[in-house]
């Protein structure tokens, strides 16, 4: 075949590919039945989340089945669904277990692509090896999957650190509102409306539970069970006990805020003690040798100039 024939074949294949992609995009963008019916069913809360689920992105429609299969494999290989759901809840992420597994697959594909690109560069230089490149790609895929799990753990730690920073202020605001004569629910509503942050979002969930008919003590007990921090759990249990037994809530809140500040002060002192040991490393291995060198170097030079 001549060069013109090859060009015609390649052009035909490219045109067919464009037509297939266009047909798929039009099929995805076509309004679904749920998107046309749900606006008339707003009084049914169980269908509220289906409206957002119907708007599937183009990439999700094209790669969704493959990513879903990969997420299933990751779930079967790694397991730990209960731990992942617990950490997703503690991190405050609006993700399901399947969506998190899909993200792990995407991170793994990114690692696979990076290692594959490195292998291709090695082949272009003439130093590549097929077996080592395949092993490196598998390692990159596994590291990407594991990296997403570690990133989730770091998100949990960062959120809990922010909650501990916000906790004393929010507790004092609640104590002031209760001491001013408001009920615990009204004080909680006032603080949630006038504050922002991760702790305020958790308290808004507690307030939503109370407004749906859950008793105040039980709502705070559920928050204590969801929280992974002993201080927050103790605070929630203290409020629940105070509400159930009729003890002054303001005193409990002031005491809880003081306990959190004291715990933060102790943690700061412990961190400073650990950092003090780390700070000794450059002093011992960098500053001290240079000081000794400057102290003894003139003497060494003087000895070299002396006559035998």
UniProtKB/TrEMBL annotation:
Signal sequence interval, chain numbering: none
Membrane-spanning segments: 6-27, 105-124, 130-147, 277-297
Keyword hit for Transferase: no
Membrane topology of this protein: Multi-pass membrane protein
Keyword Isomerase appears in the UniProt entry: no
InterPro entries for the chain: T2SS_GspF_dom
Keywords attached to this entry: Cell membrane, Membrane, Transmembrane, Transmembrane helix
Stretches assigned to coiled coil: none
Pfam hit, one: T2SSF
Superkingdom of origin: Bacteria
Domain annotation Type II secretion system protein GspF: ranges: 172-294
Subcellular location: Cell membrane
Protein name according to UniProt: Type II secretion system F family protein
Organism: Nocardioides aestuarii
């Amino acid at each position: 075949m001549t060069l013109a024939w090859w060009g015609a074949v390649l052009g035909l294949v490219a045109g067919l590919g464009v037509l297939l992609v266009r047909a798929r995009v039009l099929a995805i963008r076509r309004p679904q039945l749920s998107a046309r019916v749900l606006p008339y069913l707003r009084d049914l809360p169980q269908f509220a989340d289906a409206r957002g689920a119907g708007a599937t992105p183009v990439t999700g429609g094209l790669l969704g089945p493959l990513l879903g299969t990969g997420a299933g494999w990751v779930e079967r290989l790694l397991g730990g669904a209960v731990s992942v759901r617990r950490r997703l809840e503690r991190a405050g992420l609006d993700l399901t277990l399947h969506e998190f597994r899909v993200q792990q697959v995407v991170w793994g594909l990114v690692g696979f692509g990076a290692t594959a690109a490195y292998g291709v560069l090695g082949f272009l230089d003439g130093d590549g090896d097929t077996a080592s490149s395949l092993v490196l790609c598998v390692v990159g895929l596994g590291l990407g999957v594991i990296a997403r799990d570690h990133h989730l753990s770091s998100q949990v730690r960062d959120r809990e650190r922010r909650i501990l920073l916000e906790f004393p202020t929010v507790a004092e605001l609640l104590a002031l509102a209760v001491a001013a004569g408001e009920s615990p629910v009204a004080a909680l509503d006032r603080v949630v409306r006038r504050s922002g942050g991760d702790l305020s979002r958790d308290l808004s969930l507690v307030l939503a539970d109370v407004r749906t008919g859950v008793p105040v003590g039980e709502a705070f007990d559920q928050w204590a069970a969801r929280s992974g921090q002993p201080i927050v759990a103790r605070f929630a249990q203290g409020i629940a006990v105070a509400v159930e037994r009729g003890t002054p809530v303001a005193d409990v809140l002031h005491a809880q805020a003081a306990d959190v500040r004291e715990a933060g002060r102790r943690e700061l002192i412990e961190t400073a003690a650990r950092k003090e040991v780390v700070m000794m490393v450059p002093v011992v291995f960098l500053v001290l040798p240079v000081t000794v060198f400057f102290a003894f170097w003139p003497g060494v030079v003087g000895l070299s100039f002396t006559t035998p």
